[in-house]
Amino acid sequence: MNELATSDVRDGRTASRNVGSSRIRRIVYWVATGYVALAMVVGGLSELLDASLNIEFSSIGIATVVAVLGYPPYFVYIIGVAKVLGAIAIVVPRFPRLKEWAYAGLIINMTGAFLSWLIVTVIQGVPIPAGYGSPAFHVFNALHLVVLILVSWLLRPESRVLGNVLQPWKLRTTPPNLDGVVPSLRSRPR
To answer: Which residue among 13, 38, 75, 170 has its CA within the 20 to 30 Å range from the CA of 105?
Structure first.
């Protein structure tokens, strides 16, 4: 018998699971989550420090980036704080409802960044100042973070899950008992 696979009997059914695949799933989850958390903390802190103390982490500074994309300067503070808090929330143990909100916020944040870079610099052709890279780089950068956030969310362990969203194998397979709730179709007068 394969030592990576185990099986047991539950409710008259045989359930098999591959121990090796659950280990790989856990590793992929933590790699994706760690990468997203690190990217959000570094990005959020660099935005906050650049906006408040003029410590530039890029060749043109966050004020120029915000101006190119057409956002007001105070927007940097909102996004910077949200990134840092979201990163903390997805890494700390427990608090599944907070994690759901954090994942939603990070997806909204990075999808907004993706669409902003795509629409403003690629579609409308607004030039980026020299030294800040190509528009395609910024579009890809935001898009790959959206994908990794989704991977982290989909692979999170049971202890970090709020409900059975997008996990149809965990949903009830037998229909609920609706006796007394829904009138029977057979008892209708014809």
So the answer is: 170
- List beta partners, residue 17: 6
One-letter amino acid identity for 183? P
Return the bridge partners of 7, or none.
16
Choose among 96, 130, 106, 135: nearest CA to 35.
106
pLDDT in tens, 13-64: 444 455 678 889 999 999 999 999 999 999 999 888 888 887 766 656 788 8
- Alpha-carbon distance 88 to 184, whole Å? 52
Asked if 149 contacts 110 with a C-beta cutoff of 8 angstroms, the reply is yes
Determine the Cα–Cα distance for residues 174 and 76; give it in Å rounded to an integer. 50
DSSP 160: G
